[in-house]
Amino acid sequence: MSSPRVSRTDAAESSGRRIAVIGVRGFVGGALLRRLEDDRGPERLVALDLKKPLAPLDRSQFYRVDVTLPSADGDLADILAREEIDTVVHAAFLGNPTHRTAWAHELEDVGTMHILAACARARVAKVVLASTTLVYGAAPGHPNLLVEDRELSSDPRVPFVATKVAAERQVRKFRAAHPEICVTTLRLAALLGPKADSLAARFLSRPVAPVLLGFDPLLQVVHEEDAIDALLLALTGDHPGEFNIVADGVLPYTTLLALLGRLPLPLPRAVAYPLVNALHALQLVSSPSAMLDWLRYLCVADGTKAREVLGFEPRYDLRATLADFLGLPVGGAEYAVGEGRA
Amino acid sequence: MARAGKRDGSASPAKPRPRKPRAKRTSAQQERDAAPTDVTTDLAPDVTTDLAPDTVPPDDALDELYYGEEAMPAPGDYGAALDRHEERPSDRRSLPSELRELERRVRARLTPAFPIEARRRLALEPLWRGWREFAMRGRSEEVDEFGKDSLAAARLEPVLDFLHDRYFRIEVEGLEHLPDTGPAILVANHGGALPWDGALLMHAIRRESRTQREVRPLVEDFVFHAPFVGKLLTKLGAVRACPENAERLLAQEQVVAVFPEGAHGIGKLFRDRYRLQRFGRGGFVKLALRANAPLVPVAILGSDEMHPMLSAGGPIARALGLPYLPITPTFPLLGLLGLVPLPVKWKIRLGAPIDVTARADDNAASGTDEGLLIGQVAEEVRSAVQELLDDLVAARRSVFLG
């Protein structure tokens, strides 16, 4: 279709970037797109996904793209070139585990390959990847705070994480092969907030949560708005590299559950793993039993680099994030627990 | 895209969908489109991605068209993806743009995956609040980055005080060797089957030192990852032993305590009491060099006799995946009661600190290999601890009375 582009009149065009967001149906991509639309900063906004975003689009151009198709790289490159895109946000990652692991592999691993190939072909200036701190894995050998150059998990038992690790490895190679392109990877901690649809949000929304008897690892989160802020920071400045995006503070898992008023269901390890395995085999839960490792071992990332290099200052610390997640006033007296105050 | 998998279980997302009619539609056309006869025009599966924009940019002149098209997907196009958030009135052409903007913003807020109401008070409000208060007993809402919970530690303080004052009657000597401020590494002997020495060293130094210094014991993995034990020690202030953690603590000018013998020390037999085992690979010396922290040798007398280990359990321990299984005169004979330690008299003695930096400078001047220096210093610290221990053993008259 070769209709002439419609000139825009509403443009504040302060930053004048032409941004494409891939994966707008998911929470991160969708929320970022919404913020970009409200900012009125970017000159041109292009949204790409298999499905339309949940919120209606205002000024973005939507293209339906299936990044798992063999021809996706060429098609994507055509779109990026046609729209003269200079910045690509890759948020086409699953927010929750799925049983269709083969398709998840196509989407996250192969999809990333296509997206990166298209970015190289269309000569974009910047690629921003919305990854997760899950890529470090939860391992007994972890220090309390993981820094960005930590080896990524190579555990094949959790496909949900393994595909993201594969995507990140590709991005790392891509960064080395294309020094002219600024490639920023943001590893977001567990997303929580009133709107976020994430693994953590689903898990902590339930009234009852499983606890591995005798284990209580420290956990961290990041507020959904802070995560989007971090992505915007990555869009505005040139900061190649990987960054952990986390809220200040850690809490033991059971304390987190107590603060949220959830009922812990303590299960011995010898029961929990086979139980989750069975439920997973019956497709009653979406996470394999190996994901219970996150309730057993540490996977806490150090946000210092994002603070110092990216200039990321989270507005919500851990407690404020929890309060907002509960729908209670942040920092308000309603949230406080009488005796337990520090 | 992230949720595509959840929603349309039936349709494979890799399979291309029938495409919408491409031509821009006028509102008249849209009305025709709505008639079922008109939708078969472009239903053939199309393997290429639709390069044409699905929506037309919302220029003022085209607003009407834009929203019209939004509201009018070709049948079968969004079928699987439709959920209640996407249902919108088909006719909104009459809405003024401000109202539409308002609606857009409201809708943007109305798309949480879970309604907030459902996620906050899952039980009845007073019940929820009561449970929360109950569940937060004895926990602080904030812990430090290594998980030390000051409230939980304060609650356990009376227990540790009892052990310190009445049960083990701990005496601490040589506290002048501990710097009042700044980083330091305490290097201590390890013993006694259960890691009481770490907790009590921490407690004793906090109580007796002039500046109430907090000691962070570094605990080896098999203790740190043991159920319940690791959780409790973390709350008290222990940290998993690894170079990254230790460096971070020293950079914060904290005092760390290391037990370089590790499992070999804590799991040694009664007949080997107070005979120091191998000192690992000298990781603590490297740490001292990097953090510029003095090494303070510490001897703990008493730990090796509270659980006199007759056997390390051998094949049973291996079958259970444990480094050792303490077989003592009382355990496992008396069950868990057998894990009550004997009321031996404890003495903790700190020795003169060893300044590694000066040694490193001398070493660099003479051009010796660093690995050699690390081995030398480790051995020096080891013999200092052994000497302190030997002195303490020689000076005491009774295991229980001191």
Would you mind describing this structure in some detail?
The complex is a heterodimer of chains A (342) and B (402). Chain A is of the alpha/beta class and 342 residues long. Chain A has one domain: Rossmann fold. Helices cover 35% and strands 17% of the residues of chain A. Chain A is built from 10 helices and 13 strands. Chain A has helices spanning 27-39, 72-82, 101-121, 159-177, 199-205, 224-236, 253-259, 269-281, 304-310, 318-326; strands at 18-22, 44-49, 61-64, 87-90, 126-132, 182-188, 190-192, 208-212, 218-219, 221-223, 241-245, 251-252, 263-267. The radius of gyration of chain A is 20 Å and the shape is globular. Chain A starts with 17 loop residues before the first strand and ends in a 16-residue tail after the last helix. The relative contact order of chain A is 0.12. Mean pLDDT of chain A is 89; it is low at 1-14 and 338-342. Chain B has 402 residues and is of the alpha/beta class. Chain B contains 17 helices and 7 strands. Chain B has a 7-stranded mixed β-sheet with strand order 1-7-6-2-5-3-4, sandwiched between helices. At the A-B interface, helix 1, strand 3, helix 2, helix 3 and helix 5 of A face helix 1, helix 4, helix 5, helix 6 and helix 10 of B.
CATH topology of chain A: Rossmann fold
| Order of strands in the sheet with most strands of chain B | 1-7-6-2-5-3-4
Q: How much beta of chain B, percentage-wise? A: 5-15%
User: Which class best fits the helix and strand makeup of chain B?
Assistant: alpha/beta
End-to-end span of chain B in angstroms?
Answer: 71 Å
Q: What is the CATH architecture assignment of chain A? A: 3-Layer(aba) Sandwich
Number of helices of chain A: 10
Q: Based on DSSP secondary structure assignment, what is the total number of beta strands of chain A? A: 13
Main sheet record of chain A:
7 strands, parallel
